[in-house]
Specification:
The protein is an alpha+beta fold. The protein has eight helices and 21 strands. About 35% of the residues are buried.
Length: about 350
Amino acid sequence: MSGVKLKKVIKQYGQAQVIHGVDLDVSDGEFCVFVGPSGCGKSTLLRMIAGLEETTGGAIEIGARDVTQIDPSERGVAMVFQTYALYPHMTVEENMGFGLKMNGVPKAEIAQKVAQAAGILRLEDFLKRKPKALSGGQRQRVAIGRAIVRGPEVFLFDEPLSNLDAELRVEMRVEIARLHKEIGATMIYVTHDQVEAMTLADKIVVLRAGKIEQVGAPLDLYKNPDNKFVAGFIGSPAMNFLSATVDGGKVRVPGLGDAHLDLPVSLPGEGSKVTLGLRPQHLSLDPNGATHRVEMAEALGGVSYLYLTGPTGERMIVEYRDDVKLPTGTQVGLTFPIEAAMLFDTRTDQRIR
């Protein structure tokens, strides 16, 4: 297996630059997830690693080889796409071994590799079926099996679960995590779903507008985001943001009933505009307060989410673990541990520490 290095990688379509000098090091055997909103460049970056998109500038290395100008078939990568792309007239066994057959691999070797991959993916009982007789999750496992039999140095996944329903997505997340532990291969995985990123990744790369915003382990990004974008993108439900001002050495927050917070950070100058960030999980209801109006309550069983409107009209979400459902219009107050609050420069969106 091999790691992957991107060095000042650029991608342009005509005059439009969509990838802006990306530097990244994915270690051998690491599970790296590219995450970000639609149009951020994550799939383009993956396709450049695969060789399906030409690199306008910079270099891509797989292992010790510079593969920037090398044909996709010679890069030692295998890609699993959003669509299964299975041949409907072929059996599972034939689909998985087709690439090897086209490369002239002996039949006995193909059979051995297909059987090995089928064992890893628990497809032994389906080898003689055709795709139409399989569920969505089984079809996706066949697509992954087709990649496994090639014995690649690096596996590339381009939103492979987006066509599955919620239950199958969870099941396949578990399968892919188990697969990674079993074969220990380097895997790069693209998704817009930050829950997938948090549950699968050793390392998350958060992208926006063709640039890397932050790289780190999932919990590091959750607990210690560098900027407002990463703080809002990582975590579900998303972080609440409130407008605030530096006032008398404290942070004045009109959206919390004009509260003056003494935060343990290096505040900018008096009167500076800042943004306070609070995760729904860190907020609790204060029975003695009445700063926020309940607009809606989502009762999900073990947890509920309250959607509130504050005195300035700013909206907030609170994670609520009480069986009592609060009716619309109820006035509530909020409390939170001061160390859970994050502060951002409103002008630059960078974290204030």
